[in-house]
Amino acid sequence: MKKKILFVVTSHDKKGATGEATGFYLSEVTHPWDVLQQAGYEIDFVSPKGGKAPIDGFDLTDPVNKKFWDNAQYRSKVENTMKPSDVNPNDYIAIHYAGGHGAMWDFADNKELASLAAKIYENNGVVSAVCHGPAGLVNIKLSNGNYLVDGKKVNGFTNEEEVAVQLDKVVPFALETQLIARGAKFEKSGLWQEHVTVDERLVTGQNPQSAHAVGVAVLKELE
Where are the bilayer-spanning segments (predicted)? Predict the structure, then answer.
């Protein structure tokens, strides 16, 4: 029995004061999920509030999204996510933070999630995040008092991409800027280019286009 992988999704469903809906970006769950569950890993879901997670990017013309959505077991999991207090970090060999703009509001300051990720990492597990998912990384501190990202190469949704989607004035902070402030060596490619960075069991992807490659990189780190 392989150890399980924990996927983190946002509970936040509005883009600031715009009134526009958001949530977790479906393909940033489904594309890594597809790679990892085919390799024999079971995946569980946690969100800051637990329960049904709001979805953005709901596109069933994407065959991987459709495969996930038609899987009764996994659809039920994402509609009944665990709360952080329900999770035993020793059950998991990796933790993956999915993006979607909602993550910018409820990932960074969630101490319970940061503690779970630090424990999984210090148990020799893998921490991954894609697009806005790295918002969950900015305040993870290891037991030595250092930030997880300090001195490591990372990437995530770039400041240029945030400007391109016209949400740079809406999000509560600039993800790239905040990661750099925590000591990360931020790498990036052009707008919507696939880019995945791996450094000491930390796997980060820039945007939705990088989600599948994040899954592949996590699998390689685990195996």
Answer: none
Cα–Cα distances in Å, from 204 out to 41, 66, 179, 218?
Answer: 19, 24, 12, 9
Instruction: Tell me the C-alpha distance between 220 and 214, whole Å.
Output: 10
Q: How far apart are CA 161 and CA 173, in angstroms?
A: 14
For the beta carbon of residue 124, count every other beta carbon within 10 angstroms: 8
Cα-Cα-Cα-Cα dihedral sign, residues 9, 13, 14, 16:
negative
For tokens 């503690």, name the residue.
Answer: 115
Percent share of the chain, pLDDT over 90: 98
Q: CATH number, domain at 67?
A: 3.40.50.880
* 1 C-beta neighbours (distance < 10 Å), count: 5
Give 112-138 pLDDT, tens digit per residue: 999 999 999 999 999 999 999 999 999
Provide the residue range defining the domain that includes 120.
4-222
Structure tokens at 186: 């931020």
Q: Are 160 and 125 within 8 A, CB to CB?
A: no
The reply to whether the predicted model has a pTM over 0.90 is: yes
Please give the angle made by the CA atoms of 115, 118 and 194, to the nearest 5 degrees.
Answer: 115
* Residue 142 pLDDT level (bands cut at 50, 70, 90): very high
- Tell me the pLDDT band of 3, cut-offs 50, 70 and 90: confident
Q: What is the mean pLDDT of residues 171-185?
A: 98
- Residue 155 CA to residue 92 CA, distance in Å, equals 23
Q: Are 191 and 174 in contact (CB under 8 A)?
A: no
Q: Count how many domains the chain has.
A: 1
